[in-house]
Amino acid sequence: MAHYELYGDDGSTDGELCPRCGDAFLADHGDRKHCGKCSYTEWE
User: How much is the pTM?
Assistant: First the structure.
């Protein structure tokens, strides 16, 4: 059972891919975006 949907009906995503590793979506934590794979972080 998925708690979220990655792709819309047209195959698009709302998530932003990591600019460093490109394999994972960035998690939005409100004050920052974080990649769980390579630990890349963008502070807002």
Answer: 0.68
pLDDT in tens, 20-38: 998 888 999 999 999 999 9
The bridge status of strand 27-28 relative to strand 41-43 is unpaired
Task: State yes or no: 16 annotated in a binding site.
Answer: no
The reply to whether 21 sits in an annotated binding site is yes
Q: Does residue 18 have a known ligand-binding role?
A: yes
